[in-house]
Amino acid sequence: MNVLELRSITKTYPGVTALDGVSVSFASGEVHAIVGENGAGKSTLIKVISGAERPDSGEIAIDGGSHKAMTPLLALEKGIAVVYQELIQFDALTVADNLFLGASDRGGLHAVDDRGNRKRAVEILREFNCAISPDALMRELSVANRQLVEIAKAVLKKARILIMDEPTAAITVEEQKCLFANIRRLKAEGVTILYISHRLEELFEICDRVTVMRDGKYVATKGIGEIDKGVLIRLMVGRELTNQYPAKEPAGDEVMLEVAHLSGNGVEDISFTLRRGEILGFAGLVGAGRTELMHLVFGAAHRTGGTVRIRGKELAHRSPSDALKAGIGLIPEDRKWQGCFVDKPVAWNITVSNLPKISRGLVVDRKKEAALAAKYRDAMQIRTPSLDQLVVNLSGGNQQKVVVAKMLAVEPDILIFDEPTRGIDVGTRYDIYTIMVDLAKQGKSILMVSSDMEELLGMSERIVVLHEGKQTGTLERAEFSQELVMALASGADDAAGCGCASDGTAEAGEGTKD
Amino acid sequence: MKKTNWTVWVSNLSLPILLIASVVTFALLNDKFLTQINLTNILVQNMHITVLSTAVLILMIIGGIDLSIGFQISVVAVLIARTIKEGILPIWAAIVLGILVCMVLALFNGAMSRILKSHTMIVSLGTMAVFQGLSFLLSQSKTYGGLPKEYQYIAQYRIGGWLPTSAVITLVLVLVVGWFLKRTYLGRHLYAVGDNPEAARLAGLNVWRIKYLAYLIAGALVGVTAVLLSSRTGSADSGMGPDLTFTGITACVLAGVALKGGEGTLWKVVVAVFVLGVLANGMQLVGLGTYPQYIAKGAIMLGSLYLSNRSQKAA
User: Fold this and answer.
1) Which terminus in chain B has less CB density within 10 A, N or C?
2) Which of A324, A331, A344, A390 to mutate to test the interface with B (most CBs of B within 10 A)?
3) Closest chain A C-alpha to B191 CA, distance in angstroms
4) What kind and span of H or E run contains B136?
5) ipTM score
6) Which residue of B has its CA nearest to A386?
7) Which among A29, A67, A351 has a CA at the least distance from the CA of A161?
């Protein structure tokens, strides 16, 4: 029997269709996984079910009634609870307080029944078979225990549909066992669990059915017994590669950047080389540590081990300014917060990394400043009414060009593009790709982090794949396939050795490399 | 686009208009207001406040607020007065020492906010108490009056019989700081670091080196403030600084200096100082004493916060 059914749900954000006519139903007492690549629409689906977002069209059937949209209150009444990846809890309060906040069934003003709450807390925590004291402060608990408290809270609210967003992302193997035991127990009690995870193996351990989504569309729902990991991956990535990418000249032989056994900032033992004029892609799911790795190479994060060599010369750089001097530039992931100074003019932004060079003594030379800004505005084809325009008034694509211009003005040999086209409209994307290919042609070398599979396969000459902070593979162009990248990104069964598959076939659909 | 220009005009002109309006109002209310003596008074009474507000501006541009500047003034003024009175150092050396000490105190503030990773306002609340204790230890709760004529001349001498030296010193400092903020790349760096520290760091700027520079400059300016004030009054005690903190910050808020950092225009701060100065002077003349003035200053602070919030939303 279905407890919850979504019918033709569509949700659009400006410029993106996050959900496109998605229909899916969830049966009572099942553990139902929802999988898909970055941007497949999983998060939006959760938000629609929990009432955090209102769909543009479609309906949600629950308890025999049908609704145009859920609201947080309605979701609560219907027994829907979400355990988010980033837990929202009251750190300074005790476990018992957290359990009972908002769960009161009495209306009006009344004193908090501390003793009664504590007793019920002890009971419920005992059910969860975990050693959490109801008197412990929330902030003293591990991530896994915080999660359990959140689940316990949902149970207290008599949740019948429990949505778990990446519950195993930050917990240990032991803790995972405990979590799974509790999931099975809840399932036996008839609770339906929607389980979102990037880790494909664990789906086979805990789930009954799995729904695959891709680019905001529903792809398929399969019984877990009917499929294996290879099938699942093919369902996740099986899209047509249609977009065109500008033709790129092959990279030179000269090794520009050599990273060996680099560790720190959440990544471990990463090695790769970058040749002159090469575009090297970095694939991985959200949280794989790609941005963290780039910050490490750029000196913006603390390195715990390994070496970075530029043209064979070892760099002991400890700060972005050292990296820039050595010829590495970073175009950060988050334009607005890391990339530019939005309430400052375009010219100001383009020249900010380069001021001493365009100054005479201490004084900024206005003419040189204007010339430098104009030069890179033209090179990047930034569309702005004037160089005095504030960056906040530009489109996303043009803001991104300003960020690139700022870095190029320093004339680095190596450029790191972290999600170069995120949130940029399709037309401007091609501009950015052309810029990158042109830069490579001029002899610049590029590291490109991207969550867009097409972009990765279309632009890169080689791809390094990361999974949870570790390098799971390095692929040559001949080996490129969506399936293989996805398999490595979701944690191939053996993570040993990279530069795999020397026979150069593109047929590597299964989850393992050998 | 047009609207932006229009709002920029209004926000640029509102302060001068406010200044003129308050001058006209008090001129109408009291015929002593527009006399040469009174106008010179307003000028002389606000020189040290102008220098102090310049320091506050610099600290606010890098995204901080410093509540301890008032007691920094007390420490330095008392230190200089005592060293001179007790004949430990010649006047010039005492002044240099005082300004250097003030730079150290400012740097201490900066270092504390870096080490403690806390908001500068709360950190400065702590250092304020430290400086308060320090200044009372130095002064032993005494007032060092009757400072030598030579010392008093620093602020009080009239060049050509009419131009106060304090005004010349202040004008020079304001011009230098204005030039520094607007024309030099270091000034540009201050704005960058305050506007978006993470973007500044990733753009290769050495964020903390830049912040320390700002603290040093602000410290030197606070030191000068202490000299100007104690020279004008001819005395120094531990209670002379604290009230000024509020005036300096109010002037900057009134001038639309962004609390989040990265924005702020020096000339507006100077005009704002005089708006507050005219108000204080005028209220005194029309018979409203110190306490109504407190209320007026507070109301101005709250009113300009409201206005700056509204203009930020509009942008």
Assistant:
1) N
2) A344
3) 10
4) helix B120-139
5) 0.86
6) B1
7) A29
Q: pLDDT tens track of chain A, all 514 residues?
A: 789 999 999 998 876 788 999 999 999 999 999 998 877 888 889 999 999 899 999 999 998 889 999 998 899 889 999 988 777 778 888 888 888 876 555 545 556 677 777 888 888 888 887 778 888 888 888 888 888 888 888 888 888 999 998 888 777 777 888 889 989 999 999 999 999 887 788 889 999 999 999 888 999 999 999 998 888 888 888 766 666 788 888 888 899 999 999 999 989 999 999 999 999 999 998 778 999 999 999 999 999 999 999 988 888 767 999 999 999 999 998 888 888 999 899 999 999 999 999 999 999 999 999 999 999 999 988 988 899 999 988 888 889 999 999 999 999 999 999 999 887 776 678 888 999 999 999 999 999 999 888 889 999 999 999 998 999 999 998 898 888 998 898 875 543 333 333 333 333 333 333 3
Burial of A488 (0-12, 13-18, 19+ CB in 10 A): buried
Give the span between the Cα atoms of A343 and B314, in whole angstroms: 13
**Of all helices (H) and strands (E), which one includes residue B183?**
helix B165-183
The CA distance from B233 to the nearest CA of chain A, in Å, is 37
Residue of A nearest to B190 (CA): A352
8 Å CB contact between A242 and A426: no
Of B184, B195, B204, the CB nearest to A344: B195
- The answer to whether A360 contacts chain B (CB < 8 Å) is no
Domain at A1-79+191-239, CATH homologous superfamily: P-loop containing nucleotide triphosphate hydrolases (3.40.50.300)
Report chain B residues touching chain A, CB-CB < 8 A. 1, 180, 183-186, 188-189, 191-192, 195-196, 198-206, 262-263, 315
Alpha-carbon distance values, B159 to A293, A491, B154, B156, B162 (Å): 64, 80, 11, 9, 6
What residue spans define the domains of chain B? 40-303
Residues of A in Cβ contact (< 8 Å) with B315: 343
With CA atoms as reference, the chain A residue closest to B193 would be A341
Query: Containing H/E element for A359?
Result: strand A359-360
CA distance B73 to chain A (A): 30
Question: Are the beta carbons of A362 and B214 closer than 8 angstroms?
Answer: no
Q: Which residue among B188, B192, B206 places its CB closest to the CB of A364? A: B188
A200 to each of A229, A451, B146, B188, how far by Cα in Å?
Answer: 7, 18, 83, 50
Indicate the class that CATH gives domain A252-327+412-514: alpha beta
Ranges assigned E (strand) in chain B? 158-159, 163-164
- B258, B261, B267, B272: CA torsion to nearest 10: 40
Of B184, B191, B198, the CB nearest to A363: B184
Chain A positions touching B188 (Cβ under 8 A) are 348, 352, 355, 364
**Cβ-contact B26, B33 below 8 angstroms:** yes
Predicted TM-score (pTM) of this structure: 0.79
Residues of A in contact with B186 (CB under 8 A): 362
Query: Cβ contact (<8 Å) for B263 and A359?
Result: no
Q: What CATH fold (topology level) applies to the domain B40-303?
A: ABC transporter involved in vitamin B12 uptake, BtuC (1.10.3470)
The token pair that represents B224 in the structure block: 């000068």
| Shortest CA gap B272–chain A (Å) | 23
Contacts of B192 in chain A (CB under 8 A): 341, 344, 352
CATH 3.40.50.300 in chain A, residue ranges: 1-79+191-239, 252-327+412-514
Closest Cα in chain B to A321: B204
